[in-house]
Amino acid sequence: MGNSGGKSQGKGCNISKHSSDSKVIDRTEAPRNEFSNKDLGLAEQLEERSRSCSGYVTGCICQSVFQDILEYGNTTGMGRLLFHKLTADRTTQSEWLKKEAFLQGFSHLRSLGNLSEYYFSMFTDEKNSCTRDNLGTMMETCFIVSSQIDETSDAEKRVLSSLIDSALNGNGAIAMSEFCAWEAANCPRLFNGLHCWIVSRITECSSVSVPKQGIHQDDYLLNTSLLWLLSTTLSSVFTNQQTASQSYPEEKLSVYQLPVWSLLYDSNHQGLSMNRFEHHLFHYKGPTLMLISMSPNILLGVVTDEEWRESTQRWGSMNTSVIKILPKLEILERGSNMIYLNQKTRGLPYGLHVGSNVKNPVIAIDKDMESVKFNQVSGTLVEIEVWGCGTEQERQQQQEQKRWEVQQAEQQRKVKLPGQWDDNPDKALLEIAGINVNHSERGDT
């Protein structure tokens, strides 16, 4: 377990009495040359800020200084929890921490190899299980500090509830081992944003916030909490975030960035039709996220890193996934060759299908986009959004391709048919069929 507590490097933890008669957490002191000048300077800064605290203890850092640095929005109490985590002896609940103890604990925090165990124990106050309330506080704190928002909307709270319900799976609490297994399978980067934020705040010895991130419009399916949730779930192909390790070099800990995606198609504004869907998606060569809203109150997600196209064969790389987002997060299927899109080829099924089972796909949308089947249960298709998860250059290339196609279409309309209409064999065929083709150029009948 990622514990910076009593087992840190095998050194003991002692409680000493100072002249102020305040309890002080004191590990066996490490030589000062174990820490960089920057770290030593940080400890000095924190001690200097602690001098104004009531009952100041020489050479120590006060808990209230941590609380000032780490409080943001609705994250009340996080500074206290982390301070106690660093003290290595939770039974004392001391308000003072020796600088050397802080340096050891903070050094361990920055080099964590397992974020989930460390922060699980922090939010549960070192308990081995987490209640729904504690889990809610944990999830909301991770979301708020990662996106730097002030408060959560009702739509965003529904997304967070989906995450909590997924973790608890009908139970009232979850053990640490079960939580870590769930997190690894569903949200392997759940704590990345929180970790970056905490280390950055302490390193800078500052409570200054970074700019707010995410989707600020209320009329999109992709709200800020869903953007954050997906950034913890999807691979770096879609988010451009580090996934190989949870140990972060210092330069990557300054600011956590939510992914920036481009809206390609929104059925609410561009019409719910297969032609419009294809028009806005085709020729975009980056990875995409498709959100499907259907009755009754179900939200699905489909991600792929292959270019959208019509085909009589199923397509999609190993990075293709189908996700149930609401009402409870669930990774439904991952794998290659899961997407089928056809509205032209006769003799084959029409529509959009997603899933590896050809006969019973996870999602089936008819070619008129009027109905949808999810796991063979029919529902009404309410809305579709598709977001481009690639680079700005890939978006610009798609727009350039569209402009070129419009220009070509305009040129084709201006080109006159060769020869005279009276000599055209098509005219003779139409006359044989009994169709009057002798209209004037003015359009008279």
Supply database-style keywords.
445 residues, alpha+beta, ten-stranded antiparallel beta sheet, 15 helices, 16 strands, elongated, disordered C terminus
Strand content: 15-25%
Q: Rg, please?
A: 30 Å
* Tally of alpha and pi helices: 15
Unreliable spans are: 1-22, 25-32, 242-254, 440-445
Shape: elongated
Q: Structural class of the secondary structure composition? A: alpha+beta
Query: What's the β-strand tally?
Result: 16
Range of helix content: 25-40%
The CA-CA distance between the termini, in Å, is 86 Å
Average pLDDT level: 83
Biggest sheet layout: 10 strands, antiparallel
Textual characterization of the structure:
The structure is a single chain. This protein is α+β, with helices and mostly antiparallel strands and 445 residues long. 37% of the residues lie in helices and 18% in strands. The protein contains 15 helices and 16 strands. The strands form four sheets. Strands 7, 8, 9, 10, 11, 12, 13, 14, 15 and 16 form a ten-stranded antiparallel beta sheet that branches. A hairpin with an 8-residue loop joins strand 12 (339-342) and strand 13 (351-354). The longest helix is centred in the C-terminal third of the chain and has 23 residues, at 392-414. The radius of gyration is 30 Å and the shape is elongated. The chain starts with 12 loop residues before the first strand and ends in a 13-residue tail after the last helix.
